[in-house]
Design a protein that fits this description.
Layout (H helix, E strand, L loop, with lengths): L16 H12 L3 H8 L6 H6 L3 H10 L4 H6 L69 H17 L7 H8 L20 H4 L3 H8 L16 H14 L1 H6 L6 H29 L1
Helix pairs in contact: 1-2, 6-10, 7-10
The structure holds zinc ion.
Zinc ion binds next to loops.
Protein name: TniQ domain-containing protein
Pfam families: TniQ
């Protein structure tokens, strides 16, 4: 059995596993990956450990760090559904002025700092901040309530596997696909127009004013000050239902339209299968 560390640092509330390992590595003056492999020789990276640990790995890690396997489990994203993992950032994208404790070096990183769908702190509920301290663009203020609904939809899906008629993460991806506008803009401006802009009409204008290049559907994590627009879009489409998704095909052209249509029809078919099977269970 793995020997316990002679000195063990307490994890802070909601600390990410790799952050806890990094702080021990700093204390023992060894590289973080060496620290991790001291316990799990087969581990490929700290990121991989954050995303998934087997039951056996959780037990070995818990032994070395003198804690419970369930505690180690909660420090990872092992519970997050695969489809939602594209919303987990590589580095912290925001912080909470209440819950992030400065002072110690290296500063602990909280699990919630990597969650790309959050605009409020899951621990204390206040508005999150980012390093650039940018204000929410004022056109987005009116979408605040919808954005909070969108945050909850994505959070329920990712953290608790609670879905609605479709996957909110899938909606977020579709909303970041490019759309076509008339008259067709010059080629160097095509990137600016996304499906989301058809639902949140102020988006195109804010993106242009900020010269912010929105991320692709593959990694739909927006900078914090733009995030409420996407969250609100998710909530609006979710509550409008499948017909709104079908209608949005009108904003697409060519291959993009084919891809969008395929994705939408798959989502709608899955939703009606789900409905049919839950009705069967009631009979
Ligand atoms: Zn907080």
């Amino acid at each position: 059995m793995m020997r316990r560390l002679p000195v063990r640092l307490s994890p802070v509330a909601d600390e990410l596993l790799s952050s806890w390992i990094r702080r021990h590595a700093a204390f023992y003056a060894i590289p973080p990956l060496v620290m991790l492999r001291h316990c799990l020789p087969e581990a490929s990276s700290l990121r991989a450990a954050d995303l998934h640990l087997s039951g056996d790995q959780e037990i070995r890690l818990a032994n070395m760090f003198a804690t419970e396997p369930a505690v180690a489990h909660r420090m990872t994203f092992a519970n997050v559904a695969r489809s939602s993992r594209r919303l987990i950032a590589m580095r912290p994208t925001h912080y909470c002025t209440n819950c992030n404790l400065g002072g110690t070096e290296p500063a602990p990183i909280l699990r919630s700092q990597l969650l790309g769908w959050r605009i409020t702190c899951p621990l204390c509920g206040i508005q999150l901040r980012d390093a650039r301290e940018r204000e929410l663009p004022s056109p987005f203020l009116q979408y605040r309530a919808a954005a909070l609904r969108g945050e909850k939809l994505l959070d329920d899906e990712a953290e608790r596997g609670i879905g609605t008629w479709t996957s909110p993460t899938e909606i977020a991806r579709l909303l970041l696909m490019r759309r076509i506008t008339w008259p067709v803009p010059p080629e160097h401006e095509l990137w600016r127009f996304r499906v989301l802009g058809a639902i949140i009409p102020d988006l195109d204008h804010v993106v242009a004013a900020e010269q912010e290049n929105l991320p692709t559907p593959a990694k739909p994590i927006l900078p914090l000050y733009m995030r409420p627009a996407l969250l609100a879009g998710v909530a609006i489409v979710e509550s409008a239902g499948p017909e709104m998704l079908r209608m949005m095909r009108g904003y697409m052209m060519g291959d993009n339209r084919v891809r969008f249509t395929d994705a939408v029809e798959t989502m709608i078919a899955r939703a009606s299968n789900l409905r049919a099977s839950s009705q069967m269970q009631l009979i």
